[in-house]
User: Fold this.
Amino acid sequence: MSITHAIHAGRVITVTAYTPPSPHRSPLPTRAPSRTKVVPHVRNRVGALIAVAGLALALVSLYLPWLSTDGGDQITALGITEIIDVRSVAPVLFLGLVVLLLLVGVTAVTRLGAFAAAGAVVSLVVLAAHLAFVWTLMSSTGGDEPTLSGLPTGASVTFGPWVAALGFVLVAAGSAWAARAAAYVFPDVEAHTAHGAHEDE
Assistant:
């Protein structure tokens, strides 16, 4: 603000000129650190890739030898279904693999924590059913009274079932890792939360 003096008809007239204040130079406040969450994108993808690798390993194990006979014959997991009745556990394992394919696929292409967590839970259920089936196989080989009828005499369990078990463990671990590092559980929940945060500001 400046003051100007002017003489008019013998009188001194004071004219006050308005000077706008200088612009605000201080930096504007930034968003609080608590609201800016950096999502570990790489960790999320690594977990999903581990789950994909584990599922691929479990699927490949279906074509690996699960049983070996005294004559040197190798029987795969698919071959076992042709010689013994596995209707008690086959639906659980088959449906589990189908559901895992869906959940792991969604986890790999998105960052939805709900699907990753569901994949971890389903893989643990399938792993439990698989181990129960392997225990039944082992108890049915080399014994006088096998639990499963139809197995060839002198058959023994090989490495195939353990490869499948390792695959299910990797699916569970990778899915749990992806769920922990996921950006959000569901996109609509995240969008609603973000909208509410903006309204609070």
User: Anything to note?
Assistant: Strands lie at 2-8, 11-17, 65-68, 74-76, 156-157.
